[in-house]
Design goal:
By secondary structure, this protein is an alpha+beta fold. It is built from 10 helices and 13 strands. Strand 7 and strand 8 form a beta hairpin. Helix 2 runs parallel beside helix 10 and helix 3 crosses helix 4.
């Protein structure tokens, strides 16, 4: 028997009207892995317009790796609210921070410290754009569209490709893109990546804490959309060993000074600061302090070596890339190519601001 259910039948029920004063609010949070997301829904007797209107809720942290069974309540503090593209109407998706019984943030609540840093650096107007790469897998964890007993042809025709022999999973990508636009996430694009069944979407420009909020919610939508298609999303930075590209979360960053005329001076200064704390950045750029990125940052497949810091104009093999247009116009932004696909956007954005804006070593 197939595990799949009929989405056509479901749609019949989703078209049922709910009472005007009722609203379904799906609370969403990062679990104890620091990578996976969880969610649950409650009914409200009003339609919230701000996260401050929403009640604090709780969940069983012993089932998510965030508490002991003998003291299992973990609290959900709403921090961002989005339109719900699945239930439609006045229903909402609610991004939450997680707090322990003693009112301290859980170990995987990286948002609270990121927010404090963004407040300290608010006058520099930090902007971010993150490029989230991911791989689509069949339910058996095999890359979507790949031969079951072999490999597809070598990389080359798949990047930004078109055609059934080159592109796998476009329906999921299109559905996700539209869902993000509907919710209000500042999604700015998507494309097929170098490895077949691998894709990328971009979020930004976002200022401050909004970067992490929008990217985490976009990840939730991606997993949820893929679920409807019976497909798995992997954020593993090297899902297939060997001569295949890995997956990153390239992060574009600028301050107002970088965006001003002759901002290239500030960009070069930022790169110099980053060169002195490369090891700290590497530890922050995946959930396992660099262990995941070791498999990806080899110096091959458009990556720099994890052990070396480098920068260059239009160089996709460097740690930091200055886009050619930025070098020519002497104003703009830099691209940090080191963060892994499963990195926490709050940690990455906080680390960049600490180093570049707050001069922390």
């Amino acid at each position: 028997m197939s595990f799949a259910t009929s989405k056509t039948v479901l749609d019949r029920y989703l078209r049922l009207e709910i009472p005007e004063q009722k609203c379904q609010a799906m609370y969403i949070w990062v679990d104890g892995t620091g990578e996976n997301l969880r969610s649950k829904t409650r009914t409200l007797n009003f339609t919230p317009k701000s996260p401050t209107e929403l009640p604090i809720w709780n969940f069983d942290g012993s089932s998510t790796g965030q508490a002991e069974g003998s003291n299992s309540d973990v609290y959900l503090h709403p921090v961002a609210i989005y339109k719900d593209p699945f239930r439609l109407g006045n229903n909402k998706l609610v991004l939450c921070e997680t707090y322990k019984y003693n009112k301290k943030p859980t170990d995987t609540n990286k948002r609270w410290s990121c927010l404090e840093v963004m407040k300290q650096a608010a006058d520099t107007l930090p902007w971010f754009g993150m490029e989230q790469e991911y791989t689509l897998l069949d339910i058996d964890k095999h890359p979507l569209g790949w031969p079951k007993n072999g490999y597809p042809g070598p990389q080359g025709p798949y990047y930004c490709g078109v055609g059934a022999s080159k592109v796998y999973g476009r329906d999921i990508v299109e559905a996700h893109y539209r869902a993000c636009l509907y919710t209000g996430i500042n999604i700015s694009g998507e494309n097929a990546e170098v490895m077949p069944a691998q894709w990328e979407f971009q979020v930004g420009p976002c200022e401050g804490i909004t970067m992490g909020d929008d990217l985490w919610m976009a990840r939730y939508l991606l997993h949820r959309v893929a679920e409807d298609f019976g497909v798995i999303v992997s954020l593993d930075p090297k899902p297939i060993p060997g001569d295949w590209n890995g997956a990153g979360m390239h992060t574009n960053f600028s301050t107002k000074a970088m965006r001003d005329p002759n901002g290239i001076v500030e960009i070069e200064s930022a790169i110099d600061k980053m060169s002195k704390v490369h090891d700290k950045h590497i530890r922050a750029y995946d959930p396992h302090e660099g262990k995941d990125n070791e498999r990806r940052l080899t110096g091959l497949h458009e990556t720099s070596s994890i052990h070396d810091f480098s920068a260059g104009v239009a160089n996709r093999g460097a740690s930091i890339r200055i886009p050619r247009g930025v070098a020519e116009e002497k104003t703009g932004y830099l691209e940090d190519r080191r963060p892994s696909s499963n990195a926490d956007p709050y940690v990455v954005s906080e680390r960049l601001v600490r180093t570049i804006c707050l001069d922390e070593q």
